[in-house]
Design brief:
The longest helix is centred in the middle third of the chain and has 22 residues, at 44-65. This protein has a domain at 43-92. The chain has 92 residues and is mostly helical. α3 runs antiparallel to α4. It contains 4 helices and no strands.
Length: 92
């Protein structure tokens, strides 16, 4: 292993330990074997959550622009924050 590869491996190992993930994005992200593994991941739950968060954010903006009471705007904003705090399995 050359110095660059060793440094990348150490960084990736440290990153994985800190973040509890085996799916880190390091310098070897686009190697063919890694791309195959990444394409096989089921991302439906993450994608669905992202769409719902986005929709709530748009609704908050719409309410704000329409001069809705701030409590109605904040309801959407707090909904987005609550959704972001939900645990989603990092391996999927």
């Amino acid at each position: 292993m050359d110095a660059k590869a060793t440094l990348a491996f150490r960084w990736q190992t440290t990153h994985n330990r800190r973040h509890g993930s085996q799916w880190g994005y390091g310098p070897d992200y686009d190697l063919p074997d890694n791309l195959v593994r990444l394409h096989q991941r089921a991302l439906g739950a993450k994608r669905s959550a992202a769409f719902r968060e986005f929709a709530l954010g748009l609704e908050a903006l719409h309410r704000f622009v329409e001069h809705a009471p701030l409590t109605r705007v904040h309801a959407c904003v707090f909904g987005v924050l609550a959704m972001e705090s939900e645990a989603i399995d990092p391996r999927h």
